[in-house]
Amino acid sequence: MPSTTSSHARTVADVGEFGIIADIVRDLSMPPAVATGPGDDSAVFLVNGSAVMSTDMLVEGVHFRRDWSSGTEIGRKAVAVNAADLEAMGVTPLVMNVGLGVPGDLPVQWVHDVATGLRAEADAAGLTLVGGDTTSARDVTLCVTVIGQTEGREPVPRSGARAGDVVACRGRLGWAAAGLAALGRGFRSPRAAVDSQRVPLVPYGAGRQAARAGATAMIDVSDGLIADLGHIADASDVRIDLRSDAFELPDPVRAVAAATGKDPLGFVLTGGEDHALAATFPAGAVPDGWVEVGAVAETDGTAPGVTVDGAAWSGEGGWEHFRA
Ligand SMILES: [Mg+2]
After folding, report:
1. Helix (H) / strand (E) containing 270
2. Which of 136, 170, 196, 210 is the most buried (most CB within 10 A)?
3. Residues 266 and 183 in one domain
4. Which domain CATH number covers 256?
5. CB within 8 Å of 51: residues ≥ 6 apart
């Protein structure tokens, strides 16, 4: 899109669906595995091993606010949250489809920015945009579907954790929730935390690294570490105990906690939307860059679940606690 004054004033209704699609797919290059990309009725591509598919939607007012995040950031986040689900299976990202619903009076420049963000994060994640759909909608809605490939490895499920395994994490924890707490109080800082809320820093490649190292179960942290490890505990029928002293309390999280009178460990253990990875490994198999934070034990007749230092977490928690 030329960035002339008149183009800034143009709306989605002015350029129409085909204008939007042409902008989103402009100059896309297809890797050898993609025989047919955007422009036909369906995409055609080769998969090495099994195909692994996941979908996530972002809805304005529920998952993002246009006054808090730029179009570029929202486009990046829509891809990042999906790519994190492929990482959490330990598979290799391959292709993605994007569904975009936008009001007709939206500036076309904003949609251009979303497309820029979608494409930038797709490059970072190793995904190729091969198709999608656009429609008019009352609220901005993005629906991304990603497909990955197993390349001969078994995907890492949530159900494989066994007593004696260790729990380890990779990526940021608590940053996005701290950023949301800051934004919710009208602040734009600490910048690093606010930026994490706008676009999660997914540890790309770490999911495959964990799979190669023999991870027995894995998940991406979307709802908060305790809540998401709870899904592993349930699916694996085990108990998981976290050691509170194993967690770093990053400066931006400490700053927000101090300003809001909250416990920084609460952000780290229960803050959502960072899309870090949490996994269980046989003892001694934790790969480089992962931080060991706890252990897996039998349920011994109790319900599966997650404890911190041997007790139920009684601090602040749950990502809903931090909802705007
Ligand atoms: Mg997930």
Report:
1. helix 264-270
2. 210
3. yes
4. 3.90.650.10
5. 94, 147, 148, 149
Ligand 1 center from residue 8 Cα (angstroms): 36
Q: How confident is the model at residue 249, as a pLDDT?
A: 97
Q: In Å, how far are 62, 66, 155, 204, 212 from 209, measured between CA atoms?
A: 33, 35, 12, 10, 5
Name the domain count of the chain. 2
Residue 158 lies in a domain: no
Q: Residue 315 — pLDDT band, cuts 50, 70, 90? A: confident
The CA 66 to ligand 1 mean position distance, Å, reads: 24
284 shares its domain with 238? yes
Domain assignment of residue 53, given as a range:
12-149
Tell me, in angstroms, the distance from the centre of ligand 1 to residue 130's CA.
Answer: 22
Together in a domain, 125 and 22: yes
Calculate how far, in angstroms, residue 223's C-alpha sits from the geometric centre of ligand 1: 9
- Prediction pTM value: 0.92
* CATH number, domain with residue 140: 3.30.1330.10
Q: Are 20 and 112 in contact (CB under 8 A)?
A: no
And the tokens for 45? 């591509």
Distance CA 177, CA 322 (A): 7
Ligand 1 centroid vs 321 CA: distance in angstroms? Answer: 19
Q: Cα of 99 to ligand 1 centre, how many Å?
A: 19
Distance 218 CA to ligand 1 centre (A): 10
Distance 246 CA to ligand 1 centre (A): 23
Residue range 275-290, pLDDT digits in tens: 999 999 999 999 999 9
- Per-residue pLDDT of 239-272, as tens digits, reads 999 999 999 999 999 999 999 999 999 999 999 9
Residues 172 and 225 occupy one common structural domain: yes
In this structure, the answer to whether residues 130 and 189 fall within a common structural domain is no
DSSP bridge pairs for 52: 148
Handedness of CA 55, 71, 65, 175 (dihedral sign): positive
